[in-house]
Design goal:
- The complex is a heterotrimer of chains A (412), B (270) and C (426).
- Chain A has 412 residues and is α+β, with helices and mostly antiparallel strands.
- Chain A folds into 3 domains: 7-208, Rossmann fold (3-Layer(aba) Sandwich); 218-299, Elongation Factor Tu (Ef-tu), domain 3, CATH 2.40.30.10; 306-411, Elongation Factor Tu (Ef-tu), domain 3 (Beta Barrel), CATH 2.40.30.10.
- Chain A is 20% helix and 38% strand.
- Chain A contains 9 helices and 23 strands.
- Chain B has 270 residues and is an alpha/beta fold.
- Chain B has a domain at 7-180: HUPs (Rossmann fold).
- In chain B, helix 1 (7-26) crosses helix 2 and helix 6 packs antiparallel against helix 7 (233-242).
- In chain B, 48% of the residues are buried.
- Residues 247-253 of chain B have low confidence and may be disordered.
- With 426 residues, chain C is of the alpha/beta class.
- The chains are: A alpha+beta (412), B alpha/beta (270), C alpha/beta (426).
- Chains A and B meet through helix 2, strand 2, helix 5, strand 7 and strand 8 of A and helix 1, helix 2, helix 6 and helix 8 of B.
Chain lengths: 412, 270, 426
Amino acid sequence: MKTQTPLNFVIVGHVDHGKSTLIGRLLYDTNSLAPDKLAEVKKISEAHGRDTEFAFLLDHLEEERKQGITIDTTQVFFKTEKRRYVIIDAPGHVEFVKNMITGASQAEAAVLIVDAVEGVKEQTKRHSYMLSMLGLNQIIVVINKMDLVEFSQERFDKVRNDIQEFLDSINIKPNHYIPISGIKGDNIANRSGNMDWYNGLTFMQSLDELKNNPANIEKDLILPVQDVYKVDDKRINVGRIEAGKIKAGDAIKILPSNQETAIKSIEKFLENTDEALSGECIGFTTQDSVFLDRGDIICRSGAEPVVTDRFRANMFWMSRKPFSQDEKLIIRCATQEIRCKIEVIEKRINSSSLELLEENADKLENLEVGEVVIKTKKPIAIKKFSQVQELGRFVMILNENIVAGGIITELD
Amino acid sequence: MSRSLDHLDKLENQSIFIIREAYSQFRNIALLWSIGKDSTTLMWLVRKAFFGKIPFPILHIDTTYKFKEIYDFRDKYAKEWGLNLIVARNEDAVANGMGPDKSKFECCNQLKTIALKQAIAREKFKALLLGIRRDEHGIRAKERVFSPRDEDFEWDYKDQPPELWDQYKTKATEEEHLRVHPLLGWIEVDIWDYVKRENIPIPELYFAKNGKRFRSIGCECCCGPVESDADTIDKIVQELKTTQISERSGRAQDKEDDYMMQKLRSLGYM
Amino acid sequence: MKIDTDKKIVLIGLDGVPYNMIEEFSQDGTMPNMAKLISDGVFRKSESTIPEISSVAWSSTITGKNPGEHGIFGFTDLHKNSYQLKFPNFNDLKEEPFWQQWDCESVIINVPSTYPSHEINGVHISGFVSIDINKSVSPSSLIPTLMDMDYRLDVDSSKAHESMDLFLEDLDKTLSARIDCYRYLWANRSWQFFMLVFTGTDRLMHFLYEAYEDKNHKYHDKFLEHFRKIDSVIGEISERISDKDTLLLMSDHGFERLDYDVYLNRLLIDENLLSFTAGANPSLENISNDTIAFVMDPGRVYINYSDKYPRGYVDRGDKDKIISKLKTLFSKLKISNKNVIRDIYTKDEIFFGKYIDDAPDLTLVANEGFNLKAMMKTPGLYSKGIFTGKHTQDTAFLLAKGISSDAIGEKPKVSDVRSILESTIK
């Protein structure tokens, strides 16, 4: 029997809106807590009142307990009858947005949690915006702490309308809006007896409806070269197929040099294969002795990504040191790594309020989004993010650290 | 025909991608091989990534207190797989009789941590491949795939670089080295499923003998066996699915400190 | 050392109970058995260790040694060459407890800082901070019997933070179980040395010292009840021993009212002597590399020497200068117009032995009412929390029957208990 692929999802939302409690509840209701862990958590949480015990499972580090917030991306595992899940618990504190992005970039779906009492807050918006930027399109909104608003439908509708209005403005269409209580368990695994007015799915049912990311097999071939090895006098090029498939004999084109050749062999250790699919890390040799190097993009003639040195992007700055325009950055897109500069910052946007802060700006502060024009020193092979995410997204490096992430919106 | 990648295929490919990223960025790296099932699985993946010819050393930190089976296993496969094996010991501490009877922490510190520090300094490794998994222990959940350590081996888990879209922090300053964790996203059952599918050799200690087996293997003196009749991988997987004891429950120290802290706190002693 | 075959030695600890409280309770009828022992024996005020906390005081009691010799300086310490916290336990005690050197069978129940328990000739059940029952009892074959008695390693003090009633209920159950355990082992083992420590007294006073002082307090009677129950056990034990035997009762430190918790690290931070790496939380692990000194609970001051710590800053040559600066700083500290610090001791003044390097560079003892703390993330320099009592250094007690007053001396210390007991052995 083959093990099923788990679904990775992230839970985001404002600090203290109940992420950890919800996770604790899921683990508890799905019987996923090891007995010794459960005992440990119980012990620790006794000092803090019983209702919070789930949260302590995740807030494992003492440091966190003191702060009462989840610092970093934590992954937990549970399963329902239908499948396995990996939850990425993204933190809610404003300082930790880069951790939230780290978590969310690995997710296939997102759960946005909103406190029924507090309603939409700063991080609710910022996180939603990040989700849209990261291209996540399976989103469940849970309105938590319904027990604190007497399970009121009126309150639910109000919060739901507020969040919907914001999500509409950033083009997010959630799959569901679900009223829950993480602490009491209403509408998590079991339908709540306290909210007869709600006829939708329970949270667990809504999770089971989510779909794994489809493999990019039907798309045009994209194979970025990762490295070249010399094995027993044979030069083997290696890389991961990001889209499409490839087999021995296929004609290929190499970007940015535009050379054309064909695949001679597909190489895998201890395997004989002549075909490979999107997602596979392979070795390959070419029929002509072309010299390949890291950063080259293998594709098919007639279905190439665009090769350009100027394009438009939305870039999210996540370094405490603000970006000033004369700084030279290095862009990394798949395995390509090229010096670049930001020619224009057309708009500087507050990622939480979406307020336009400045046009034609010359800087970006931490957690701000810029609509920018990027000029690379050498040509780079790219796609629009909406077409092929793997070649449509990038990070920026400054002083050897990742300081920004971005998606390509328009090609020049 | 519609071949597709299953769960283990996806994990395998992701790990190979990470291994190749690490080598591509640094060249001067090593695989830290504890000879346990995780790091042996990692070894298997590294062999796949480099077509059987691993272009960097395999580092074994030898506390001199390992199970005999571990040494035998190491030497057998180092030979069979043509590994460039570096065995590192803190010779001074060994000569001075360091052992768990002194203090368990000090013993680990001297024979593992310091031995590793010495080896990194000597060989000037810029990155180490480690077989840790997120589901092992609470604190592991905080790990990044590429995780910087400063010269004191300290891990600033509160201020880690972002990781997105398989783009990692792949440069280290002079003082730092990076810990690279290709198995981070695997869980214990995945490892066993994969060991079985690939027929990866692992030490016999994992399999039950006389009603006991080891769930994790380190030094002989600090590892306790668990009650078990699982003498095949299938039975081990079955056991994992039915009994839920965290893997390192054999390694006791972890949780006690937590309790101690809580108890002292509740009396205002901290 | 060999105890006469027809002689028994019994040592009863009442953790944290001050001299004046014993005096008061023996006069007002709360502890009649104690009163009787006082009139028949030798009753003295005694001195705790510095610092005056159970881990250090009991370690000195059972070894007769200075912390510099036995190596325990607090409930917490740092791993070598690191700022990482460690929790020293019985395995870290560098000197053997005296019962190991007495050639007799012993029963040891609930002595703090003796976890994990060690195999001995007799029975050893470890005390605070004991975590796992499986590592707290030797021989382990006793565990089922203890479980049957509903034995509890310790009061669950976290309950006091939720509900005082729950806490008191647990306190009483723990005491009852402790008594059952003592009775069982007293009767079923052929021991010559018996040591039993009551630790609930300390817990009670931490949370409800005010209930002792205030006769109208809701829990005043509960407070007395706990002491009455212990007194009846003391009566029972007095009855059970003969004139040849030795009985010694003691506390490891005293107690008094707590007015303020005082956060010494806060003072250091405010004076720019302690700081943390940029953006990091205030904690030991995040100490910046220009830190001069830091404090560990309760009032242990450590200089951040460059040859001792990974981010050490201070050169040994500057030691005198820094010590004098710190002394001035601490001695001037005033809250509500009162001096906070009573005494400041340098290492050499109070510690000696092989492990003196691990000792704090300065150790502070507070004036009445001030409780010294090392918390780094604090609301301010001082505050008042849930605790209403605090330890004292110089008001512990010692009460002996069957030992001459010469052997005890006028002002005994807890570290003298060993030699006092051994004076009754040939």
